[in-house]
């Protein structure tokens, strides 16, 4: 596994070693000891899997009292995945980083606790899987507005069309109103 710190150094892009031939491929997707060496001493307690169609945007979500770190990957299709630093004492506070995750590149992204997270489906559809460091707590979930001008995320929207978002995500908070860490 190759670990690459991004422009926000706490957010890490993981690239597995893939061994393939005419039969298919094999890759290791997680090893606790290596993850801890490169990302920190986190333990995962919950795995999630979602499926979305092209043009769907999910996020930007985080939990404030029970923050979750997430190790995310796409096993079918492609997404543009985004992490926003909500840690007010961080040198990268209010900054965002985005990467393309797909079944072809097989990259994974480590989004530590203290970040808002979301993704936009750029392929025909996407299956998105992620490990979490804390349990989902619906009453603790915060939604940051996906198109907040203070953050200025450059989403690769298909033909410039507005993404499809849930009713909850459409009511996301502006950065100024969102709780920080």
Automatic annotation (TrEMBL):
GO molecular function ontology, one term from the record: dTDP-4-dehydrorhamnose 3,5-epimerase activity
Catalytic function, reaction form: dTDP-4-dehydro-6-deoxy-alpha-D-glucose = dTDP-4-dehydro-beta-L-rhamnose
SUPFAM superfamilies: RmlC-like cupins
EC number(s) on file: 5.1.3.13
Classification via InterPro entries: RmlC-like (IPR000888), RmlC-like_jellyroll (IPR014710), RmlC_Cupin_sf (IPR011051)
Gene3D superfamilies: Jelly Rolls
Pfam family of the protein (one): dTDP_sugar_isom
Keywords, in A-Z order: Isomerase
Pathway noted in the entry: Carbohydrate biosynthesis; dTDP-L-rhamnose biosynthesis
Role of this protein: Catalyzes the epimerization of the C3' and C5'positions of dTDP-6-deoxy-D-xylo-4-hexulose, forming dTDP-6-deoxy-L-lyxo-4-hexulose.
NCBIfam families: rmlC
Record text on subunit structure and interactions: Homodimer.
Family, as annotated: Belongs to the dTDP-4-dehydrorhamnose 3,5-epimerase family.
Protein's name in the database: dTDP-4-dehydrorhamnose 3,5-epimerase
Organism expressing this protein natively: Halomonas dongshanensis
Lineage of the species this protein comes from: Bacteria, Pseudomonadati, Pseudomonadota, Gammaproteobacteria, Oceanospirillales
Encoding gene, per UniProt annotation: rfbC
């Amino acid at each position: 596994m190759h670990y690459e710190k991004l422009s926000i150094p706490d957010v890490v892009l993981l690239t597995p070693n893939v061994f393939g031939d005419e039969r298919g491929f094999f890759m290791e997707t997680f090893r606790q000891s290596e993850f801890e060496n490169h990302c920190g001493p986190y333990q995962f307690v919950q795995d999630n899997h979602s499926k979305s169609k092209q043009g769907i945007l999910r996020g930007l979500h985080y939990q404030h009292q029970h923050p979750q770190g997430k190790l995310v990957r796409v096993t079918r299709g492609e997404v543009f995945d985004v992490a926003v630093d909500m840690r007010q004492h961080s040198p990268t506070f209010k900054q965002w980083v985005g990467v393309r995750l797909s079944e072809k590149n097989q990259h994974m992204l480590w989004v530590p606790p203290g970040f808002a997270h979301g993704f936009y489906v750029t392929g025909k559809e996407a299956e998105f899987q992620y490990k979490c460091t804390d349990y989902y707590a619906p009453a603790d979930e915060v939604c940051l507005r996906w198109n907040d001008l203070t953050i200025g995320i450059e989403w690769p929207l298909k033909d410039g069309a507005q993404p499809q978002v849930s009713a909850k995500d459409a009511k996301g908070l502006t950065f100024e109103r969102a709780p920080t860490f």
